[in-house]
Design a protein that fits this description.
Strands 1-2 form a two-stranded antiparallel ribbon. By secondary structure, it is mainly α. It contains 3 helices and 2 strands, in the order H-E-H-E-H. The chain is 63% helix and 4% strand.
């Protein structure tokens, strides 16, 4: 024997399922965000402060040459993670493009 559900009950069940699945997705996103924040804190632990006075003088001189005004260095830290090669690749590509010989 088949019982028929009213349209309002079907709509209520459907909306309930949709909101329950949205709630599960929200919980999943919060958990993933918490995990990424925790992994970033571990990445910041790999950084170290720079205490070399010669390196600080070079950084201050470069900033002065660039800005044209004296600067005050508050903190310098070195990142101990993997180096990003994208800047080097972009520089090499600029050099290669500048040396291309075209029709005159």
């Amino acid at each position: 024997m088949m019982t028929h559900m009213s349209p309002w009950l079907i709509a209520l069940v459907a909306f309930g399922l949709v909101f329950a699945s949205l709630g599960c997705l929200a919980i999943l996103l919060f958990v993933l965000r918490a995990l990424s924040v925790r992994s970033l804190k571990g990445a910041h632990a790999a950084e170290r402060d720079v205490d070399d006075p010669e390196l600080l003088a070079v950084i201050a001189a470069a900033a002065y040459a660039t800005l044209g005004a004296p600067i005050r260095i508050h903190r310098v830290h070195a990142h101990a993670g993997e180096a990003d090669e994208s800047w080097g690749q972009a520089g090499r590509m600029d050099i290669m493009v500048s040396h291309q010989v075209g029709p005159k």
